[in-house]
Write a structure and sequence with these properties.
The protein is mainly α. The protein is built from nine helices and no strands.
Length: 245
């Protein structure tokens, strides 16, 4: 293979006056912002949906199940296009125009990716709650807690510990899925990757660097949540396939 390796091209100046390594840093910053913002949305909404799907209220269960079925079975890129281009057309004219002109692309990307991931986290939270002994709910009610208080103080703290490894995987996936937001104009890492290839044709170098960055971001998230899992572990509770050890 007659390929000319040139690692120094990262320090060359691009058309906008910035160096190519600055494009990479900028893209990484956007990737982190979109991913962490979407993760916050997904954890909050996914937890609410997970709880809704385990309540005795059939209406809440139906709403939660419908949300999960819809958002899990529609590709992420289609959902992003819906939020960016289709939904504003169905809003009242002034509101739709405001959304198009004033709502930052970053916020819309965070919402789109967050709502998609929330459906997956809802499934994990539901599984964690259902894995608990039914006696925990009855014990909470016997102490005088309301149904919602049993979730807040008894069931959810234990359920989160059970599903934290699965949530860790979803958190890592968010960094990978954030690459899809390039299609709607977010200048994240994959967007910059494609731009640099078009400008320089140094495909192997930029591919190696971008791959390493994605791995580093996902691995960092893995280590952070592994630390949280270790610190919050309850002796005797089986989590992460470790048998409670």
């Amino acid at each position: 293979m007659n390929y000319h390796w040139d690692w120094l091209f990262f320090f060359q100046e691009a058309d906008d006056g910035l160096k190519y390594y600055e494009w990479i840093i900028s893209g990484m910053g956007w990737t982190v912002a979109v991913s962490l913002g979407a993760l916050a949305v997904a954890l909050l909404l996914g937890s609410v949906l997970g709880v809704m799907r385990t309540t005795p209220n059939r209406v809440l269960v139906a709403i939660g199940d419908t949300y999960v079925d819809v958002f899990r079975n529609v590709p992420l890129i289609v959902q992003l296009f819906m939020w960016f281009f289709v939904i504003p057309e169905f809003l009242p004219e002034k509101l739709g125009l405001w959304v198009k002109q004033e709502l930052p692309y970053l916020v819309t990307a965070i919402i789109g990716l967050g709502l998609y991931t929330a459906a997956r986290i809802a499934e994990q939270v539901k599984s964690g709650i259902n894995a608990l002994a039914r006696g925990q709910r009855f014990a909470g009610l016997a102490l005088g807690f309301t149904e919602w208080q049993t979730y807040r103080y008894v069931r959810l703290p234990m359920a989160y510990r059970i599903v934290l490894p699965a949530i860790t995987s979803e958190a890592m996936n968010i960094f990978k899925n954030s690459a899809v937001t390039y299609a709607v104009g977010i200048l994240e890492l994959y967007f910059q990757y494609k731009q640099i290839i078009e400008k320089t044709s140094q495909v192997l170098e930029i591919t190696i660097v971008v791959t390493a960055i994605y791995f580093g971001l996902a691995f960092a998230m893995n280590r952070v949540l592994a630390f949280i899992e270790k610190r919050s572990a309850v002796p005797g509770l089986i989590t992460g396939g470790k048998g409670g050890h």
